[in-house]
Write a structure and sequence with these properties.
heterodimer, A: alpha/beta, 5-stranded parallel sheet, 3-stranded parallel sheet, 9 helices, 10 strands, 40% helix, B: mainly beta, Ubiquitin-like (UB roll), 1 helix, 11% helix
Chain lengths: 257, 65
């Protein structure tokens, strides 16, 4: 199972906690997913609503590792301040670092991401950077102190799957010893299986489960998919070929006119 | 004095951050704070004084992806 900053997790599935129809459905989806990590966020709270405490109680009952994010941050300063607030609230050095660079695609700003990762690493954070499949960006994030890389599959919430399989395969080959997670863009369990078959250690998703008609059933589908993907990756898959090759022996076939 | 709390102009009587949080109803709630975009740890709230016009952010755990 994947090891992130010295912590071995129990599943290759990391699941978000947003957009579920109800807290009960969220909890049911998590049970079915067997996810070992839940992503969470920090948001403004008024003195009268106490929603934060209720949500925190729900998450504690799930019994999973918590990975806070800096979702929605567009600048280094915003991301760093949000990370500090998250560390205090969730009592973990883990931070899923998002520094968004484009409003439509929600793709990361690679320059701000590297700078924020460097600052946070020096402050003792263990950074999980939401990045692209760019190899140079990956190298600079590792140099900045990251020990995990999380390239996107496709834009957040799009459900498009693995948009650049070649690029993701190259990244896996280029950083063979770095724990890597496909983060964002997955819509179906088959896409998660593909990511794990490519050698990725885990997948991180939210919308695909939360917005499914039956989130718990979809969560179970993803749980089975990542297990299937891991079995296939470990089983040394056959090489694809362009020409057909009969699987039934030709020798011994009856000659029938 | 008038400060901005989570984007809304707000009149507060207290000056110290810990007292402002109590005044705004947060008491011992699980919240984190930033003043003028800089994080203020819980351990420093008792000594952090705010001035008129300061921007206070108060956040709590929420759902996230």
């Amino acid at each position: 199972m994947p090891v992130f900053y010295g912590t071995e997790v129990t599943s290759r599935l990391m699941l978000g906690t947003a957009q579920y129809p109800s807290p009960a459905i969220l909890a049911d989806a998590f049970r079915q997913s067997k996810a070992g990590i839940a992503t969470v966020s920090v948001r403004r709270e008024a003195g009268c609503d106490k929603a934060g405490q209720d949500f925190w109680t729900l998450i504690e009952e799930l019994g999973v590792n918590v990975l806070p994010n800096t979702a929605g941050c567009h600048t280094v300063r915003e991301a760093v301040t949000t990370a500090h607030m998250a560390r205090e609230l969730f009592n973990t050095p883990w931070i899923k670092l998002e520094v968004i660079g484009h409003a439509d695609t929600l793709q990361p700003d690679p320059f701000a991401l590297v700078e924020a990762a460097r600052i946070l690493t020096e402050d003792g954070f263990q950074v999980f950077p939401y990045c692209t499949e760019d190899l140079i960006l990956g190298e600079k994030l590792l140099t900045a102190g990251c020990e995990v890389l999380m390239p996107w599959g496709a834009p957040i919430g799009s459900g498009l799957g693995l948009n650049n399989v070649y690029g993701l395969r190259s990244m896996r080959a280029h950083f063979p010893d770095v724990p890597m997670v496909i983060d964002a863009g997955l819509g179906l369990p088959s896409q998660a299986a593909h990511a794990i078959e490519l050698g990725y250690d885990a997948v991180l998703l939210n919308t695909a489960v939360a917005k499914a008609g039956d989130p718990a059933a979809m969560a179970k589908g993803f749980a089975l998919a990542v297990e299937a993907g891991a079995l296939a990756h470990a089983a040394d898959p056959m090489e694809p070929r362009d020409m057909a090759a009969p699987s039934t022996p030709v020798l011994g076939k009856a000659f029938l006119e | 004095m008038k400060i901005t709390v989570n984007g809304t102009a707000t009149e507060v009587a207290a000056v110290r951050l810990d007292a402002i949080l109590i005044e705004l109803g947060h008491g011992d709630a699980k919240v984190a704070t930033a003043v003028n975009e800089d994080f203020v740890p819980a351990s420093l709230r008792a000594t952090r004084e705010l001035s008129s016009g300061d921007r206070l952010e108060i956040v709590a755990p929420r759902q996230g992806g």
